[in-house]
Each structure stands twice: as C-alpha cells, then as structure tokens.
Design a protein that fits this description.
21 strands; six-stranded mixed beta sheet; Rossmann fold; Metallo-beta-lactamase, Chain A; 390 residues; alpha/beta; binds flavin mononucleotide; 2 domains; binds fe (ii) ion; 12 helices; 34% helix
C-alpha cells in the first residue's frame, strides 16, 4: 500500500514540518509536526483542508499528483487557523472551479484573512448537512470552540471516517505508537484545546452516535485501530480527570534550596507509600510539558522561591497557564521560600483560588532560605495530607 493511501479513495496530502522550532510560536516540537490534508477521489473530488504556509509547495504538488489531472470540486475548510487555512486563497485561485465548503462562521473568517472573491463558489453547511460525492457522502458536524468558533468535523458515511480537525491531533512527525501518542497528544490537547473541555465533551457525544472506523486528524497519524483507546483518552482529558494516582512536585528555585526541599518532599511522599511522584523543575522544563504533567496526576505540590514580593517567574507563568487551561479537580500543597518576607504561598493560594475545585492541603510550608527542623516538620505534615488526599 502506498504510504499516502488512507483508503483507496482517500489519499493523504499533508506535509511534515520536522524543522519547526515552536508550534504556534510557543510549543517546542522536538520531532516537528505535520499539517494534514486529505483528498477524496470519487465522482466528485474533495480536498479536506489546506496546510501551513511552510508546506505550500509540497502540498500543492501532492494534491495535484493525487488528483492526477482531475479538477478539485470541493475544498472543505474545517478550521481557519493558519496552520490549516493558510493556502485557501492560493488554492481557490489555482482551482477556479472548486467550491469552498464551510459553515456560517467560516466565510466571514476567510474574508478576514484573505481578500478573496467567493461569489458563486461557496457552500455554507450546517449541523448534519450532507454532501454526496458519488459513492462517498460527507456529513458535517459543528464543533464550536474546539478550539476556534468555526471548527467543524466531517464524517464520511460510506467508509466511516471522521475527519476530526485538530481533535485527536498530536505533535511529532512519527508519533504512531499508542504510548508516544498519549504523551504528545496530551501535551497538544491540554495546552491548545484544554480550556474547552465542555465543548469537547459535546463533540464526543456527537461522535458516540456515529460508527467511526478511522480518524483523520489535522496533525499526526491517521488512527485506524483501537479507536476506543483514543476516545477514552479524550474523554478523560476533556473531563479534567487525572490519569494517574500520583503527585507532581512543581518547583521554581533560584539558588537551589527550594529545589532541594522539593526532592525531600518527594522522598517523604515515597516513604508514605506513594509510588508515582515526579519532581518537575519549572526553570528547566518548558511550561507545555509541565502543564501536561499537572493534568496527569491527581495531586500536586507547588514549591516556589519568593521573588520581588511575589513568585519566581517560572512558577507564576506555570500557574497562569494552568488557570488558562482550566486546571481543576485536584488537591495541591504549597511550599514557599523567602529570605526576608516570604510571600510565595500567599500568591500561589490566591492563584489557585481562581481555579475550580482545587483543594489546598494544609499546612502551607514556609522555608526561610534553607530547610531547618521546623520547616522540615511542616513539610512532613504536608506530605501526610497529600498522601491521604485524592
Ligand atoms: C531578585 C530577587 C528577589 C527576591 N525577592 C524576595 C522577596 O521579595 N521576599 C523574600 O523573602 N525573598 C526574596 N528573595 C530571596 C529568595 O526568595 C530566597 O533567597 C530563597 O531562599 C531562594 O530560594 P532558592 O534557593 O530556592 O532559590 C529574592 C531573591 C532574588 C534573587
Ligand atoms: Fe487549531
Ligand atoms: Fe492545528
């Protein structure tokens, strides 16, 4: 089978971008990313989304090759974010006969991005509408705010393929294995879509009513087997449930004393029977990985040096990201360090109070420069509470 063949009639036309430094100008992608696009060949032909501007030439060549001299009848636009929509105007110009398929929110956005005349060549679809291509029939389902307002997914009824937009997407150009997918798809989902759990749950309910045999996302591998595994992960992530009974210790230390306390707390938790304890040095870990870890475990301890009357920036940034991504339903412990007026715990407490269903384990531990007998004892009490918590 051709490596580009999804099924006989559905061909992959996406491009890999292995050299990208930061996806969306903020997420490190050590193994790059793919911008997926698909072409369906039937009595009518349909191109499913375009790609990022970084892949224009390769994509156009690939689409032409797959079309093999045929016209493109439709361009389906699932999502207008430029990692997918960048080539809409270019494609429309090259294929003047192609009809652009989108929903009521897609077309105003196309006009925002491009100076483009779509007179007589746009098809506005709404929830449940179908578009016959011949043997294949596309059916459209709206997915508003997963994670942009105009997002929709397309279900192909004959081969039972869900074109899932960014949903079920992942970083990496070769993240086929389930474990690998779980890590990077989680980092992708939680950071990019995580805020919109309610909307994702709504989409999953729609998907539950469909017989899906294959998922074609806009990033990462096509999912052909064991779809229950992926659906279950999405259900967990979008309902903000933890994946593991364990504790993340997130620490932000300037000179190392808070970091040493974090390691001691980890040992205290292990001594109390915790088997999954992970210390994450926020100063040396990109925040997107730290956010993924925070959602993974059911409990967290946040340990930070005080800095100019507030938090050391790595911790401040981390908590800001957690709040933005709707971090919730967790127990957290607080450890602060300060040499003259420790304020980190107060600041962290206020930030956690802005999140839903966060239980703060007591006591908050105050270290004055370095752990001593008193702060060590307090940390033992915190370990007791965290180890009992859920
Ligand atoms: C630029 C800067 C600002 C600081 N601001 C405060 C502060 O406002 N209050 C305080 O108690 N300590 C402050 N500190 C001191 C550290 O919080 C303190 O030395 C702490 O023990 C550092 O822990 P660490 O060894 O984990 O870096 C500041 C340190 C630096 C470098
Ligand atoms: Fe997107
Ligand atoms: Fe995307």
């Amino acid at each position: 089978m051709d490596k580009y063949e999804v099924t006989e009639a559905v061909q992959y036309a996406g491009v890999a971008d292995p050299d990208l430094d930061l996806f969306e100008s903020q997420y490190p992608v050590p193994d790059g990313v793919t911008y997926n696009s698909y072409v369906i060949l039937d009595e009518k032909t349909a191109v499913m989304d375009t790609v990022d501007a970084r892949g224009t030439d390769q994509w156009l060549a690939r689409v032409e090759k797959v079309l093999g001299g045929r016209k493109a009848d439709y361009l389906v636009v699932s999502h207008m974010e430029p990692d997918h929509g960048a080539n809409i105007a270019r494609f429309a110009k090259l294929h003047p006969e192609a009809v652009i398929v989108g929903n009521a929110k897609t077309f105003p956005m196309i006009r925002q991005f491009f100076d483009m005349d779509m007179e007589g060549r746009s098809l506005v679809v709404k929830e449940g509408d179908t578009l016959p291509l011949g043997r294949h029939t596309l059916q459209f389902f709206m997915a508003p705010m997963v994670h942009w307002p105009e997002v929709m997914v397309t279900y192909e009824q004959t081969e039972k393929i869900l074109f899932s937009a960014d949903g079920f997407g992942t970083f990496g150009t070769d993240s086929g294995l389930e474990e690998q997918w779980s890590e990077e798809a989680a980092r992708y989902y939680l950071n990019i879509v995580g805020k919109y759990g309610i909307q994702v749950q709504a989409l999953l309910k729609k998907a539950a009513g469909l017989d899906i045999r294959m998922i074609c996302p806009l990033h990462g591998p096509v999912l052909k087997e064991n779809l229950g595994f992926y659906l279950e992960k999405y259900n967990k992530w979008s309902s903000y449930e933890a994946e593991a009974h364990g504790v993340m210790i997130a620490c932000a230390s300037i000179h190392g004393n808070t970091a040493r306390a974090a390691e001691e707390l980890a040992q205290m938790l292990k001594d109390r029977g915790e088997t999954q304890v992970e210390v994450v040095d926020l100063t040396r870990t990109d925040v997107s990985y730290a956010v993924r870890k925070a959602f993974y475990y059911d409990r967290m301890a946040a340990a930070s040096a005080t800095y100019d009357g507030g938090l050391f920036p790595a911790m401040e940034s981390f908590l800001h990201h957690l709040r933005a991504k709707n971090y919730q339903k967790r127990t957290v412990g607080l450890v602060e360090n300060g040499s003259w007026a420790p304020l980190a715990a107060k600041t962290m407490r206020t930030m956690f109070e802005g999140m839903k269903q966060i239980k703060v384990a007591e006591p908050a531990v105050t270290i004055r420069s370095a752990l001593d007998a008193g702060s060590r004892e307090a940390m033992g009490q915190l370990a007791d509470q965290l180890a009992q918590g859920e």
